[in-house]
Write a structure and sequence with these properties.
With 174 residues, the chain is α+β, with helices and mostly antiparallel strands. The chain has one domain (33-171): tt1808, chain A, CATH 3.90.1570.10. It is built from five helices and twelve strands. The longest helix has 16 residues, at 36-51.
Length: 174
């Protein structure tokens, strides 16, 4: 088993990774990205939030560094921040929503670790979509729950996204 090479957080923050990587207590960890469905769903969420950003008072930004703890940075597939949140190049204020799109190699165990980091930071809305199984989840430190009515929603806001629209995005002609 290979030993991880640890780097200081300052080096991580000054380095460009393509695609960007998580940083976990000194270790740079690659993320599973680059598949067509993964990219389509990232674009879809960005598009739907952009269309509604004036009414929903949010901005959706793909692959934005989020500092979940002093020595831990995660890169959600889509990070949704409130218009009134501080403007931060690296997000340190808990986002309104963190959205994760699973890749073929992702496991629910790996996802739970990410979710635990977001939840510990104070993120109240964590969504995950599995394009391969056509499933969607509300996520928390307690686990995963599928939306009962076929919509992702954020309580106390007008935000709602129909899962039928999300999965229809995968049925577009190649």
């Amino acid at each position: 088993m290979a030993t991880a090479i640890l780097i200081p957080v300052s080096e991580y923050l000054d380095t460009t990774y393509r695609p960007d990587c998580d940083y976990l207590e000194g270790e740079v960890v690659e993320r599973n990205v680059g598949e067509r469905w993964h990219g389509r769903l990232q674009n879809f969420f960005g598009f739907i939030f952009r269309l509604n950003e004036a009414v929903w008072r949010v901005q959706a930004i793909p692959e934005l560094r989020v500092q979940v703890r002093a020595e831990r940075y995660r890169i959600p597939d889509v990070c949704v921040i409130r218009n009134e949140d501080p403007v931060e190049q690296i997000v340190r204020t808990p986002p309104l929503i963190c959205i994760e799109v699973l890749s073929k190699k992702d496991t629910l165990g790996d996802l739970q670790e990410r979710v635990n980091d977001y939840a510990a930071m104070g993120v109240q809305n964590i969504w995950a979509v599995d394009p391969w199984k056509r499933l969607a989840y509300y996520c928390s430190a307690r686990g995963f729950q599928q939306p009962e009515d076929g919509f992702f929603r954020v309580q106390g806001t007008p935000i709602q996204v129909a899962l039928s629209q999300v999965f229809a995005e995968l049925d577009q002609p190649e």
